[in-house]
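#structure-requests
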Amino acid sequence: MSDPFLQTGLEIFSGSLVGFTLGLIGGGGSILAVPLMVYLVGVSNPHVAIGTSALAVAINALVGLAQHARAHTVKWRCAAIFASCGVLGAFIGASLGKAVDGKKLLLCFAILMIGVGILMLRGRKNEGCPGASCNRGNAAKVAGYGAGTGLLSGFFGIGGGFLIVPGLIASTGMPILNAVGTSLVAVSAFGFSTAASYMASGYVDWSLAGLFILGGAIGSLIGTRVARSMAQSKGALTIFFACVIFCVATYMIWQCLFGR
């Protein structure tokens, strides 16, 4: 792209969309970041897009986490179990992902997204239990979901929030707003783990990451406020979560199969 000001504007705008979705639904950061970097910003190497997005999403997740923490929607014990069990999986997954063709990686990513979206819509009427927490009875289940999510997070180069949120709901029965806030701890941990692996291979564009983080910080503040508002309407946050997944996944599949 010849105009540097337009290029910079697109990068900041893309980052703001990523931050907004992180604050709003706890996931979707890398679901949006990777295709935005590849198809809008113009990053030619999918592995660079994955490594750079992992770093940007991890830092933007911390901004969103601070907002949710102030609103007391984070269940810290669950977050600690999920994140600690998922970090090792993220390292392993990142090593495997770098060995796979970039275009095939994006296609598999999109197919997985559609499956998760369908599962979320099926459970949209379940409001969850506000008092749900991690205890001896479900700790092993939470740990298992954390390890599996971390593996997929590293493999696909994603923060993992769109997997963590349904995983937390399935393993503890907590409401989606609590799952969104709690997921950001693991999103950040998984993102930093994945980014560290990609940094070691030279797959991080630092200037692009900086602009994404700048835009994302603004977007996450807005997204967190909107999430608290939408949570008052039954199923609205879950439906929005699934719709974001379907729209982006469809576009990615089309680009992988018929794009340049």
